[in-house]
Amino acid sequence: MDHQTIKQTGRLLLMFFALSFLLSSCYKDNEEDLYPDGNNCVTENVSFSKTIQPVINNNCVSCHSGAGASAGIRLGNHSEIVASIDGGRFLGAIKHEQGFSAMPQGGNKLNSCAISQIEAWIAQGKLNN
Ligand code: HEC
Questions:
Q1: Which of 10, 61, 102, 126 could disulfide-link 96, Cβ–Cβ 3.0 to 4.6 Å?
Q2: Could you tell me if 54 and 103 lie in one domain?
């Protein structure tokens, strides 16, 4: 390779790295969505409306709402969710502990970040925030 070719290759490589850096920094915004089990699980000041309720809406409410709610357990709003947690069967069920019915029934276990966030939210006082 002559000098000119080396220079051009170097420039191309530099552009390639700059571009991949730019692209990866765009992705950073969504790290939590992309890697829910990673080290980026935020458990400080967990918001009920932004974090807890969407998880329960997406995974539980199809069976646990309305008059025909499974096991009579309703999880449609803050006070119903708090009542279920206070009833003492909620955490064991989502953590698939022995002696509990594993929830969501017939579905995948919630990811470990979601479970940590629920536990953190409980420890922070089960706020309707
Ligand atoms: C496909 C329907 C379905 C989904 C989805 C579902 N459940 Fe259930 N759940 C049931 C049924 C049916 C029962 C009662 C029978 C049993 O205990 O297996 C039950 C029981 C429970 C119990 C009592 C468990 C026990 O051991 O006493 C809790 C707490 C519960 N569900 C919470 C949840 C939560 C939280 C979610 C979401 C993460 C969820 N469920 C998703 C159908 C469902």
A1: 102
A2: yes
